[in-house]
Amino acid sequence: MTKQRFDDQHTPSYGSYVEGELIAHETSEWQDIKIVQTETHGKVMLIDDVLMLSEDTHHVYHEHMVHLPLACIEIPKSVLVIGGGDGGTVNELVKYDGLERIVLAELDEAVVRVSQETLPDLTSGLKDPRVEIRIGDGAAYLAEQTDAFDAIIIDSTDVCEESAGVQENANPLIEPPFYEAIKKAIRPGGVTCQMLGSPTFYPTGMEMMYHRLADLFTHFKPFLMPTPFYISGDWGGGIFSDDNDLTPRFAHVSPEKLIYFNADIAKGALALPNSVRKMMK
């Protein structure tokens, strides 16, 4: 293995790095994509030199983003994923026998293609016949939908204002027209899930998102999940709805199919430390 070092500089005074063999590298119209083979953590994906996932830990993030919102829905039939071109979120969704339609709306064709070429296990769910892959602007696709989805999962790059680099393409995903489109596209009782960022490194952006979503939707619950390879070790997300009380009480997938997530984890993710509770006030 010919090793190289790839730095992920989070702030001017803090960063991390990945060391391994660069096995795929492509600069698309939108971003720079690298896949690095490491000795101890499998393949790692970096986008614009920000670590997106590792083969050995991605399941924690992907399982939270899928199974927490869907645990709040009694009979989910259709799900839209905005972003998520690496296939990890779709890979969790195909575990639901009752789902009839899964739409992946990914801006960058290169992310899907490079992931399929280098991460076959992670992208295996994209071959499921219920999956539709739509390359293009996910927000524009969403705006065309009416009463179409039981759940919407926004698996984009960072949305918080304090995030740098990769967040530029995701900015439309935090504007009021985007959330109005969600209200139109989602079915009664539906739930949306969105990644929000690090409460430790991006508290101003997190607070902004908390209050924005709480003001726009009748029900909003932030959650935290451990993310071993992300900055600060934990990451924040939010589930929101106008007519679902966001209580995770439905188990649609056998625990044997999941590596990390279960009913107790769902409850724990919604339990917030005092510092995050203060953001909500």
Largest sheet: 7 strands, mixed
- Computed CA radius of gyration, to the nearest angstrom: 18 Å
Uncertain stretches of 5 or more adjacent residues: 161-170
CATH topology assignment of the largest domain = Rossmann fold
CATH homology-level superfamily of the largest domain: Vaccinia Virus protein VP39
Shape: globular
What share of the residues lie within helices? Answer: 25-40%
Number of strands: 12
Q: Distance between termini?
A: 51 Å
Question: Order of strands across the widest beta sheet?
Answer: 8-7-6-9-10-12-11
How much of the sequence lies in strands comes to 25-35%
CATH architecture of the largest domain, by name, is: 3-Layer(aba) Sandwich
Report the structural category.
alpha/beta
How many domains, as an integer? 2
Counting DSSP H or I runs of 4 or more residues, the number of helices is 8
> Whole-number average pLDDT?
91
Provide the succession of SSEs: EEEEEHEHEHEHEHEHEEHH
- The multimeric state of the shown protein is single chain
Description of the molecule:
- This protein has 281 residues and is α/β, with parallel strands linked by helices.
- The protein has 2 domains: 4-54, Spermidine synthase, tetramerisation domain (Spermidine Synthase, Chain: A, domain 2, Roll), CATH 2.30.140.10; 58-279, Vaccinia Virus protein VP39 (Rossmann fold), CATH 3.40.50.150.
- The chain contains 8 helices and 12 strands.
- Strands 8-7-6-9-10-12-11 form a 7-stranded mixed beta sheet. The chain has a 5-stranded antiparallel beta sheet with strand order 1-2-3-4-5.
